[in-house]
């Protein structure tokens, strides 16, 4: 059932040289670090340490294993054997620590009474003889953050049980001593320095009385009784006249198991016994040597001569007497003998095993048994405390309450070979697993030592609570229980759904799952979820995964949809039903389009009448398209995922479409890349002729997508795939025409009753897209096709209407004539701008032209673009003059001549000038080139050639009015400040020694200064000449081409020059010319 389906995965393997499969492990002392990074296996006087290591298996997958890192003999006295061991991870004191242990200390108790502390590599750090009886059990308690206000923080401690005594070592004292001993070991190994005496251990020693036999114990911690319990205890112990203290004393509670009584409860009042200090000094009397690294070399590894060593062995340290501690009460059962006790993480419950095969649950606060299981002989116990996971209370009205914890008892019955999990306190069995009969259940019951409320802030403690070691397979498995198994009723259903949601997420993230397995697993989980909101979340998560194929998504969604339809309509969530049906519709549409593109069908040839004259148009603009294609076909670098040929995933398709309330589909425009991918998926196969465009259009129309959005997608993919379109223009143009006609015939595309005196919104959408596009060739082809389609559509409409409506036909077609003419001009201009500059010339990306950009650039936008291109081409003024003179002498080149001379830059410029006779008139072009060069010179004054060519371009301007305005603007904007600085410097060097630092005050060197002043002389000469010529010649009238009369934007340089009123006159300019002439 589903309860047994939660994970019980194998996460570590044990590498051991032993191949024995019998119950050998039952005779060993086994302990595991709570971090699962160190395993200790000991028997008699020998031990093996296994440390965590990464290993690559045969399939290439990395996994964590436990490999033998040290083996050797632990005992140092004759005849002593290992009785108990624990692994205590010590927290790092570095601020950068995130919760991983710094190192792990192995604590081992022997039959001689010694307790020895080792590192992971078997180096003996410390040895203590605290009692002369065998050590029965070692247990540890570490710091835990209190879950509720008022709960006492329990101190860290190490408890050592002897047959009649209990020793508790303070955790802080132990932590500092172990760190000091480890540091002194490292120093001795490195330099052999003197031994630094570690701080002594602070411990308490209690003599447990009034109990016949003790085999195990638990140190519950410090507790404070309530007032009622204090009065009750005082009355029981002291009688009727007993006195009660004002405040209840703090007491340490200890629970022991054994016989006579079966369970004993001891309470040690704080302050009744003073802490004892261990005699560590006797072990640190000399220097450490290299033999320190041998764990069997002696106490702390001191190396002396043989006689001194034997004397130390014979000398026993002083053993302090124990403080008597009487039993408060117990659970008497003369026939029952306790075998082990396991304290819960919350310190309120404990599980006890006995020789009758019973497991008893104790309430430690009340001192009573509250539950008992039978049939568990030789049972091993462990506890699991599971916190409430995020999202388990998402739908709870009390979300602000603190996080809850669920408590489970894990029982391993080796004789039955079964592992069971029980909910506390009176909960049912929530899980059972069949395991081997020779396993060991490893439960530490503690975490990292050395942690407090300050250092643990922000730490993520990676510890395991319960692990099962199987010696037959060498596998170490962890036991994990979902939180929701502790709940019941509706809360349990919601928590179960959250658990199923997590399982679904894990399945979807797995990459090595077969599609059939993924489909079956996801369908089963989705149908098992009960809560509508979680089911909706699961469906959305499923549809957004990239690993599931489309068929899998469709089958699962269809199964869910069928299940919802079979349920009572009143009890089904409407939003979930709508989501399921809409996503199923989108998946079906995706699958249909995919199948249409994958089917090798040849579409029907369109009618020749609809493309009448299109071949002539293509042959007319063909040479320009060919030259444009050559200039745009340069290799470029792009990412594979950004390639337009990459297939569109179903998840991306679903994210860009949504169903409206009326059942239609709406395309959501996200990023430009996603929009182009969707357009490629729908229409590129039709444009290439690989798919039946009529079937694709019918499928999209039946799905309910508006024709306007389909038109936008079609035009976007057409403009984006310009390079591919130009490779086969005839075929792609024919397919585009068929698609445009098919889309325009859809319902809602072209309104049946649009006003003949207005523009059709449908065709206006096509024109706006072409006007804004920077892909000049694709936009021109789209405009030519749309012009033909619109003409055929309007003509067919006009045939069935009155003759008076022919005015509307001419108005719509006139818009197309102007648009086509503008796009042809833009194509020729863009072709010119794409010509690469010669090597060594000034770089820069070519300008991107469009009708919208040129109109917004104002009347001088076209001349400004060409002037920047002239500068990038490093074209001299004389060469530009020759080309423009050739333009005036020749007639405009035909398209046949253009294709022959397409590699001639001059002829290409002439063709552009013939396209823009007014915007690129010689005076206008020279004026813009002059201004461009002076702007570039101002950026780098060391390039004196730029200023020289600016003056040369200014000389070529024939209109004195334009010359005067531009020269005046040049002088006042760029020249006058540098000229004044140069004049001041000239006067200065007459009286002082000339130095280069003075030259740099002007911002240029000697050579550039000379060229600058020569240009100033020429510019001032032009100013004086044109100042008198403007009175004799009328100002020119500037105009633009009819197709570009709608330009809006800044005025051209020539217009600014005509509007400029210079203040300079001849009598003002002569002194400045005289100043520049001598230099």
UniProtKB/TrEMBL annotation:
Keywords: Cytoplasm, GTPase activation. Residues 1-15 have a biased composition (Basic and acidic residues). The keyword Lyase does not apply. Residues 24-442 form the Rab3-GAP regulatory subunit N-terminal domain. It is found in: Cytoplasm. GO terms for cellular component: cytoplasm. GO terms for molecular function: GTPase activator activity. Residues 709-1061 form the Rab3GAP regulatory subunit C-terminal domain. Residues 1-20 are annotated as: Disordered. PANTHER family: RAB3 GTPASE-ACTIVATING PROTEIN NON-CATALYTIC SUBUNIT (PTHR12472:SF0), RAB3-GAP REGULATORY DOMAIN (PTHR12472). Belongs to the Rab3-GAP regulatory subunit family. This is RAB3 GTPase activating protein subunit 2 (non-catalytic).
């Amino acid at each position: 059932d589903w309860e047994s389906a939660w994970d019980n995965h194998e996460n570590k393997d044990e590498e051991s040289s032993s191949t024995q499969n019998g119950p050998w492990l039952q005779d060993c002392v086994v302990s595991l670090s709570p971090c699962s990074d160190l395993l200790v296996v000991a028997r008699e006087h020998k031990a093996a340490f296994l440390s965590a290591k990464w290993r690559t298996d045969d399939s290439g997958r990395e996994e964590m294993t436990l490999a033998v890192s040290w083996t050797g003999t632990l005992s140092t006295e004759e005849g002593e054997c290992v009785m108990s061991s624990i692994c205590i991870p010590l927290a790092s004191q570095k601020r950068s620590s995130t919760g991983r242990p710094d190192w792990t200390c192995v604590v081992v108790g022997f039959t001689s009474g010694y307790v020895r502390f080792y590192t992971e590599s078997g180096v003996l750090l410390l040895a203590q003889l605290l009692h002369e009886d065998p050590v029965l059990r070692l247990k540890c308690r570490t710091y835990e953050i209190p879950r509720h206000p008022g709960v006492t923080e329990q101190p860290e401690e190490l408890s050592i049980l002897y047959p009649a005594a209990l020793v508790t070592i303070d955790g802080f004292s132990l932590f500092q001593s172990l760190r000091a001993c480890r540091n002194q070991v490292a120093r001795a190994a490195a330099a052999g320095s003197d031994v630094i005496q570690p701080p002594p251990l602070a411990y308490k020693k209690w003599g447990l009385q009034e109990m016949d036999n003790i085999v195990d114990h638990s140190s519950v911690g410090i507790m404070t009784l309530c007032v009622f319990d204090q009065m009750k205890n005082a009355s029981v112990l002291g009688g009727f006249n007993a006195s009660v203290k004002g405040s209840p004393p703090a007491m340490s509670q200890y629970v022991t198991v054994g016989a006579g009584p079966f369970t004993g409860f001891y309470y040690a009042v704080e302050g009744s016994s003073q802490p004892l200090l261990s005699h560590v000094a006797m072990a640190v009397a000399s220097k450490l040597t290299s033999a320190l690294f041998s764990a069997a070399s002696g106490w702390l590894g001191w190396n002396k001569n043989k006689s001194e060593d034997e004397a130390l062995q014979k000398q026993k340290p002083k053993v302090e007497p124990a403080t008597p501690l009487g039993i408060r009460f117990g659970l008497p059962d003369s026939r029952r003998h306790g075998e082990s006790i396991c304290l819960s993480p919350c310190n309120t419950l404990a599980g006890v095993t006995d020789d009758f095969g019973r497991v008893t649950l104790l309430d430690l606060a009340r001192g009573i048994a509250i539950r008992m299981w039978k049939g568990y002989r030789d049972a091993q116990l462990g506890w699991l405390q599971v916190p409430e996971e995020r999202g388990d209370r998402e739908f709870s009205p009390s979300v602000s309450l603190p996080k809850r914890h669920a408590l489970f008892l894990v029982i391993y019955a080796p004789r039955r070979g079964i592992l069971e999990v029980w909910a506390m306190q009176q909960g049912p069995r929530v899980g059972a697993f069949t395991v081997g009969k020779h396993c060991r259940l490893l439960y530490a019951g503690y975490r990292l030592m050395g942690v407090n409320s300050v250092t643990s802030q922000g730490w993520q403690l990676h510890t395991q609570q319960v692990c099962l070691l199987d010696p037959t397979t060498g596998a170490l498995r962890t036991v994990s229980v979902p939180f929701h198994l502790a709940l019941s009723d509706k809360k349990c259903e919601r928590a179960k759904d959250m658990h199923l949601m997590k399982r679904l997420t894990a399945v979807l993230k797995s990459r090595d799952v077969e599609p059939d397995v993924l489909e079956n697993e996801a369908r089963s989980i989705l149908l098992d979820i009960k809560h509508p909101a979680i089911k909706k979340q699961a469906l959305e998560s499923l549809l957004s995964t990239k690993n599931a194929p489309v068929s899998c998504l469709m089958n699962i969604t269809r199964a869910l949809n069928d299940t919802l339809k079979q349920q009572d309509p009143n009890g089904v969530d409407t939003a979930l039903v709508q989501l399921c049906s809409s996503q199923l519709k989108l998946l079906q549409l995706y699958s249909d389009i995919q199948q249409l593109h994958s089917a090798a069908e040849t579409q029907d040839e369109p009618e020749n009448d609809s493309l009448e004259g299109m071949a002539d148009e293509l042959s007319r603009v063909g040479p320009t398209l060919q030259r444009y294609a050559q200039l745009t076909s340069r290799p470029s670098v792009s990412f594979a995922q950004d390639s337009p040929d990459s297939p569109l995933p179903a998840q991306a398709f679903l994210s860009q479409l949504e169903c409206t309330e009326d059942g239609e589909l709406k395309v959501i425009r996200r990023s430009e890349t996603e929009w182009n991918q969707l357009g490629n998926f729908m229409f590129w196969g039709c444009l290439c002729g690989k798919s039946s465009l009529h079937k694709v259009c019918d499928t999209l129309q039946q799905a309910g997508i508006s024709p306007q959005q389909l038109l936008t997608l079609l035009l976007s993919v057409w403009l984006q795939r310009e390079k591919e379109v130009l490779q086969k223009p005839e075929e792609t143009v024919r397919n585009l025409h068929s698609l445009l006609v098919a889309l325009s015939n859809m319902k809602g595309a072209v309104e049946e009753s649009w006003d003949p005196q207005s523009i059709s919104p449908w065709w206006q959408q096509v024109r706006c897209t072409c006007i804004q596009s920077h892909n000049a060739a694709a936009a021109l082809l789209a405009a030519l096709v749309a012009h033909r389609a619109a003409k055929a559509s309007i003509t067919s409409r006009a045939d069935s209407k009155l003759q008076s409506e022919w005015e509307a036909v001419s108005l719509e077609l006139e818009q197309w004539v102007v648009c086509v003419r503008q796009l042809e001009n833009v194509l020729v201009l863009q072709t010119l701008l794409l010509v690469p500059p010669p090597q060594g010339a000034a770089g820069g990306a070519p300008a991107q032209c469009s009708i919208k950009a040129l109109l917004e650039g104002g009347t001088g936008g076209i001349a400004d673009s060409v002037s920047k291109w002239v500068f990038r081409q490093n074209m001299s003024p004389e060469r530009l003059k020759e080309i423009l003179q050739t333009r005036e002498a020749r007639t405009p080149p035909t398209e046949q001549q253009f294709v022959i001379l397409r590699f001639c830059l001059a002829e290409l410029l002439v063709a552009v000038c013939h396209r823009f006779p007014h915007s690129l008139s010689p005076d206008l072009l020279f004026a813009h080139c002059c201004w461009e060069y002076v702007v570039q010179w101002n950026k780098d004054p060391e390039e004196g050639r730029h200023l020289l060519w600016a003056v040369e371009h200014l000389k070529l301007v024939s209109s004195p009015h334009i010359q005067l305005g531009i020269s005046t603007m040049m002088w006042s904007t760029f020249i006058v400040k540098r000229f004044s600085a140069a004049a001041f410097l000239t006067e200065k060097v007459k009286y002082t020694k000339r130095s280069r630092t003075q030259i740099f005050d002007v911002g240029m060197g000697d050579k550039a200064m000379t060229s600058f002043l020569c240009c100033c002389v020429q510019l001032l000469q032009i100013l004086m000449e044109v100042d008198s010529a403007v009175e004799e010649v009328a100002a020119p009238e500037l105009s633009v081409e009819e197709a570009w009369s709608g330009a809006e934007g800044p005025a051209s340089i020539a217009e600014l020059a005509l509007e400029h009123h210079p203040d300079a006159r001849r009598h003002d300019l002569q002194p400045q010319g005289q100043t520049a002439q001598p230099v």
